Amino acid sequence: MHRLLTTSINIRHVGIFSYGWAALSLGGPKSNRWSSYLLPKPNTLPQPKHSGSSLSCKASTEKTEPKKPNANTKYKFPYSKMTVQDTEERLGFMMQTFESEAVAVKDMLGKFKDDTLETGSGNLKTKEKVYDRIMEYLEAEGYPTEAEEDFKEANINDLVYGIISPIIADFRRKTGRNIRLRREKEIVAMDSETGGCEEFILMDVITIKERNFVFIVEAKRSSIGEAMKQCLLAMRDMKGRNGGGVVFGFVTTGEDWRMIEYDGHTFQMTEKFTVLFNTMGKQKDRWMKENSIVVDCLYVALQNGGIVKKDVTEVA
């Protein structure tokens, strides 16, 4: 039940492109689906209230701690051990409300200028590569389903890698950016409260000492909600480490995906979009038209996440 007035500001910060979004709640019709979840500077806003008809989406000023500390000396609470309530207190908003106010994928992509998307034959070739990689995966490992008890999370990770790796490789060749995919990368919050090892993290290697987070992919075999919880916590800590700019996250079960953006103040997430369907081997044209949008989403994340846009140039 919010109408949001949004403004965007480009900020240059230590070699990364920051695409910030601020949101002001002005009140309005329920049909407006844009969501705003603000994480302000400490000691500015009260703790969110979880009761009543009015839900607060602002961060708490009181220090909150999950119930089960970790023995890890780098951080107290692993992402995987955080409950939903712990996560809500850490982020400062309610997960159910956040999910219910997701936006259409086209609206998320529309926040960025058209020139952030690769167009023409180059984009078509990248999408064809992704389609071919998905088909190779399906032929080798089968369709991702909970009905098959031998189908594990490792199988989903194989699929995720098959989708994102050709996109990353093509982006590197075209732009010359020194971006690298890191597997089982450890993330630790600036306050050492939360942390964990994440399977897919993309880093922008600027200098020997300066490496910024670009995006994270969190894959779960059956629960996109669990993936979302861990992804949001990791994005919060990634952004804290970057110091500026915007970071992106993707949550997936292999079949369904969601894209998340975070600029340090506002989280925003898309509705689910489908990347696989059972008969895609016989319907390539349909996949290219309706389901290849995952390539556009990842390209936007590559172009804008932790990267200074004007430093990105095409390589002949």
What is the number of strand segments? 12
Largest sheet: 7 strands, mixed
Helix count equals 8
Q: Name the average pLDDT.
A: 79
Helices and strands: which structural class? alpha+beta
Q: Specify the helix fraction band.
A: 25-40%
Low-confidence stretches: 1-36, 40-66, 308-316
What's the alpha carbon Rg, rounded to whole Å? 19 Å
Q: What gap, in angstroms, lies between the N and C termini?
A: 49 Å
Tertiary shape: globular
Order of SSEs, N→C?
EEEHHHHHEEEEEHEEEEHH
- Strand fraction equals 15-25%
Oligomeric form: single chain
Topology of helices and strands:
Layout: E1 4-13, E2 16-25, E3 77-78, H1 84-91, H2 95-100, H3 105-110, H4 121-141, H5 153-175, E4 179-182, E5 185-188, E6 194-198, E7 200-205, E8 211-219, H6 224-242, E9 247-252, E10 256-262, E11 267-269, E12 273-274, H7 284-291, H8 293-304
Helix pairs in contact: 1-6, 4-5, 5-8
Can you characterise this structure?
- With 316 residues, the chain is of the alpha+beta class.
- The protein is built from 8 helices and 12 strands.
- The strands form 3 sheets. Strands 4, 7, 8, 9, 10, 11 and 12 form a 7-stranded mixed beta sheet that branches.
- A hairpin with a 2-residue loop joins strand 1 and strand 2 (16-25).
- It is globular.
- The protein starts with a strand and ends in a 12-residue tail after the last helix.
- The relative contact order is 0.18.
